[in-house]
Amino acid sequence: MRGKAQLCFLVLVVFASASAFNVFAKEVTVADIASLRQALTDAQNNQEDDTIHILPGTYRLDAPLIYFAPDPVDGNEPYSLTITGAGSDQTIFEAEGLKSLLKLTDFFEGENEKT
């Protein structure tokens, strides 16, 4: 009986450790614009550091991507956002007629457009 209780405790500790690690960061891989938009929305609301990996491909935008940074805590941005692609020759954005690809809004600066 004691061995069974120890095993249950060990499983619980491993599960809690894995859950605690996941609280601090989230990584997601996207392969289309709809998934990228959703990943940006999730990132601004999940209270975690986020990394979005964009797979190789050509992505056509009909409207800019938008990210609203969370409100700062003690004057500092509380969570980071990292967006990576497969390289400028493999992850390509087409945005004909758009002024920018990504609109970033933060608490201090207001809206910032990044091309």
Helices and strands in order, then pairings?
Blueprint (H helix, E strand, L loop, with lengths): L1 H22 L1 E6 L2 H13 L3 E6 L2 E4 L4 E4 L12 E4 L6 E4 L7 E5 L3 E5 L1
Parallel strand pairs: 1-2, 2-5, 3-6, 4-7
Antiparallel strand pairs: 7-8
Overview of the molecule:
By secondary structure, the protein is α/β, with parallel strands linked by helices. It has one domain. It has two helices and eight strands, in the order αβαβββββββ. It has helices at residues 2-23, 33-45, and strands at 25-30, 49-54, 57-60, 65-68, 81-84, 91-94, 102-106, 110-114. The strands form three sheets. Strands 1-2-5 form a three-stranded parallel beta sheet. A three-stranded mixed beta sheet has the order 4-7-8. A hairpin with a 3-residue loop joins strand 7 and strand 8. The chain is globular and about 40 Å long. The model is unreliable at 1-23 (pLDDT under 50).
Top keywords for this entry?
8 strands, alpha/beta, 115 residues, 2 helices, single chain, three-stranded parallel sheet
How do you describe this structure in short?
The protein is α/β, with parallel strands linked by helices. It has two helices and eight strands.
Low-confidence sequence ranges: 1-23
Distance between the termini: 63 Å
- Total of domains: 1
Mass-distribution shape: globular
Q: Percent of residues in helical segments?
A: 25-40%
Largest sheet: 3 strands, parallel
Strand content: 25-35%
Backbone CA Rg? 19 Å
Question: What would the average pLDDT be, to the nearest integer?
Answer: 76
What topology, given as strand order, has the largest sheet?
1-2-5
- The secondary structure category is alpha/beta
What is the number of strand segments? 8
**Helix count, per DSSP?**
2
Order of helices and strands: HEHEEEEEEE
